[in-house]
Amino acid sequence: MSSTRLITNKLCKKVHTVLFILLYGLFSTHAAISNRNTKSLGNKSLATTSSTSQPRFISQGHTYRAVVGETLTLPCEVENLGSLVLLWRRGTNVLTASTLKVTTDERIRLVNGYNLEITELEPQDAGDYVCQISDKVNRDQTHTVEILVPPSVRAVPSSGQITARKGGAVTLECKASGNPVPSIYWTKKSGSGKSLARIGEGPILTLEKVERLQSGVYQCTAENNVGEPVTVDMRLDVLYPPEISVEKSWIHSGEGFEAQLVCIVHADPQPTVSWFQNSFPLQPTDRRIMSSRGNRHSLNIRHVMQEDFGNYSCVADNSLGRSKKYMEVSGRPGPAEFHSAPWSKSPDSYNLTWKVDSYPPLQEVRLLYRKLMMNETFQQPARWHDVILTPSSRPLNEPLTHAMSFTLRGLQSGSVYEAIVQAKNRYGWNEVSDIFQFYTQRNPLDPRVEELEFVASSTSRNKSHNQISSYRPILLLFPFLLVLQLNLHKWH
């Protein structure tokens, strides 16, 4: 069948060539006869014909750019054509002769005289089209057609799926075609599916030392200003061993209450997660419930008992490795949190308030405070003052939080203090609280010049007592400046 088609194609080409030769000969004979008839006229008539009846192109050769699929019309307008024949050809292929259509291409026809119309343009229609007059000079006019093709793009590989190991390099590739040649750039889609800023140019995007956060959908975009840009998505999966983080490393609970341990696990391939208490594997029970939702893995312990206190570990395994994080479930009190304002309303006292979470009643609370001596370059803390407090019973409707307060007296005005609190219940002492700083008001009736001299020592150490006395009004401003500076620093 294929050999028959090949023979048919060759035969058609030969017939087309023979037809072109016959038409060309016909046109030449027609031109020669016309010339002989013209010679039989008188010299005056010959001169008149030569000046008025020579064929001439009114249209001009041009380069046309059209988008594939559109319709294009190539003009061929001739003045004084007379009995001459107009020919359209493309290379050696004759398209039309006079009003006769020679080509078998149904998309080609003559419109409005001898203008050549081509519908449903294809990329292979690009090239030179010649409109030729069949006189002995064979005058012609050439139009050049350029077909603009919108961009198209495809992923390499065609599946658009790429896998790489953490720490390795990976190459993403896409191929684009179109006319003009499209430009290519890369973006990475966010979790909402929107493309972010450009991260690369050209058909190849190389990522070095990939991390797990580089997993996701990458988009290759091709554009050439013909039609709309086109895109193709590629999915990158980064394989890595488990990485674990915990919501809380220390979980406070009490007997009869509940404790929840949560670890967040990231891994690819998907990991298996196990729970351990004091290095012993745990299995689900009526009181121990293990659950997973996405990357969040939790262990809920209901009706906590004495033996439930201790160290726990969350262990994640996949084919690339293992990771472990530790947590502690404890009945000891939680760390104290201060709730009093940092500014005292009194120059010599301060009411310190705080809260401590503890399911069992508190047995003892220890409060330590001290004064800070400060200047522009250093601070010198004084010794700690230790106060042992006996907690009062808490309300029955508040099974967890202990709210406490204590008024510190005999403080120095215009000074900076810091305090810490530690609490104890039947399971032991909690961790020491964060340091809390507070400030006493300045007493305007007590300038306390001796202390001000210490604060201003960096600027007054080499001055005489008389000089210090002369700057005493300025030194009185130091407490305000010191407190303001400390407060601004803390706010910052």
From TrEMBL:
**GO cellular component entries:** axon; neuronal cell body; plasma membrane
Q: Where is the Fibronectin type-III domain positioned along the sequence?
A: 334-443
Q: Which Pfam families match?
A: I-set, Ig_3
Recorded GO MF terms: axon guidance receptor activity
Question: Which CDD domains does the entry mention?
Answer: FN3, Ig
Q: Which UniProt keywords apply?
A: Immunoglobulin domain, Repeat
GO BP term, pick one: homophilic cell adhesion via plasma membrane adhesion molecules
InterPro entries found in the cross-reference section: Cell_Adh-Cytoskel_Orgn (IPR050958), FN3_dom (IPR003961), FN3_sf (IPR036116), Ig-like_dom (IPR007110), Ig-like_dom_sf (IPR036179), Ig-like_fold (IPR013783), Ig_I-set (IPR013098), Ig_sub (IPR003599)
Tell me if Repeat is a UniProt keyword of this record.
Answer: yes
Residue ranges of domain Ig-like in the record: 55-146, 151-231, 242-330
SMART domains given for it?
FN3, IG, IGc2
**What's the protein called, per UniProt?**
CLUMA_CG002357, isoform A
Q: Write down the species.
A: Clunio marinus
